[in-house]
Amino acid sequence: MGKKNINFLLIHEEKRALKIYITSFYITYVLSDFIYYFFYPKYILKTAIGYPNAIGYWGYLIFIGLIPIAYFLAKIDKLSAIKYMYLLSYIIFSIISDAVLFADNPSSFNSGNAVELILVLFSPIFINKQFYWVVTLGSILRYLLVGIMIKSGVVLIPIVLIIILSAISYILLRRFSSYIHALHNSHEDLRQMEKLAYIGQIAATISHEIKNPLASLKGFTQLQREKHPSDQHYYLIMEQEIVRINSIVNDLLILGKPKSTHFEKHNVRDILTYVLSITQLLALKKKIKLSSEMEEDLPLIECDENQLKQVFINLIKNGIDSMQDGGNLRILSKFCSNNQVSISFSDQGCGIDQSDLDNLFKPFYTTKEDGTGLGLIVTKKIIEDHQGFINVESELNIGTRIDIILPISQ
Asked: Which residues cross the membrane (predicted)?
């Protein structure tokens, strides 16, 4: 989904929330005044009806006057300003109104207006913590100021009620935020899965057409190399590039394959020892020291040996590529609680910027000049197929640490 579409949806939902909020505000404001100043005095108390003074009618003039302003702000997409305008207008008017009405008779002060129920309890519908705190603190401050003006402690009751309502609202806000976050993550995961499945389908379709010519090309290249020994260097480069193309196709195929359910028990120590033996020469060429610390009594784990070899090779090569001026690459494996094994890869390379770190596992995203952007996404998929997880921590110009956690049994 594009950024414009997302912004449009956010604005649309903000408008819907505002309509509910403002409509509820007006309905509650009118009904509460009608019941308190007209219905209750006439039918319950049998006393005179109406506002005690003209300030009650000023409230309607003020809030009716806010309607065209709110309409104008909505037209220019200043939706956030509308809710703050209504909130602050109500708080300021309520402070003045209560100070005028109850200054001479504090004992007649009531427990607040039903409108505050709407302001506080409905604040979570905007999924905005800042607005929630403005509503909560503004409502409490309103009663504190009124209490100071009328010199009475009767405002403590509505303050306690506001705190209770705010606590309920905060719980709702947290639940709404958590729910939306979960929906967003589910949507992103689904989008990623669809993208990978599409890539896999394309790869499966064209892999046969690519691999057969590559096999023939590799065979003919080897024959030509034997015929022309003087050009060994060029033929070697050709063979390496053929292997590289084949590797890219294999990576694409892994992305599109369904999760494997066939695992065998293997020793992680043995797998790492093998991988270190075949990457040692590459590390030496770049003046990089490979060191490992592996617990002697690591348990056997259920895994696909070849896939884990590919994961470890990918991570070691990435670490080597990040250290252009040499350095140390350390591998640590140990047994963890909850029947898990941890394998960590720490390098002293250039590190990864935070913006790149956020996109690290996106298909075809790479910071290398000759990278395909498939290595880490393939690595992540293999780890997830093993019911494990991968974590990356990095700091620019200091290095990167990648932790892999794998369960002992599937």
From this structure: 20-40, 55-74, 86-103, 156-173
For 247, the token pair is 């590797």
Q: How far apart are CA 343 and CA 272, in angstroms?
A: 9
Rg (CA), the chain: 34
- Residue in the block written with tokens 């941890």: 342
pLDDT digits (tens, 9 = 90+) for 340-366: 899 999 998 888 887 777 777 777 767
Would the CA dihedral through 201, 205, 207, 208 be positive or negative?
A: positive
For 26-59, how does the pLDDT look when each residue is reduced to its tens digit (9 = 90+)?
A: 999 999 888 888 888 888 878 888 777 778 888 8
d(Cα 377, Cα 363) in Å, to the nearest integer? Answer: 6
Q: Where are the domains of the chain?
A: 3-154, 193-256, 264-407
**Residue 69 CB contacts under 8 Å (≥ 6 apart), including other chains:** 85
Rounded Cα gap, residues 382 and 73, in angstroms: 51
CB 339 within 8 A of CB 349: no
What CATH class has 264-407? alpha beta
Task: Give SS3 for 328.
Answer: strand
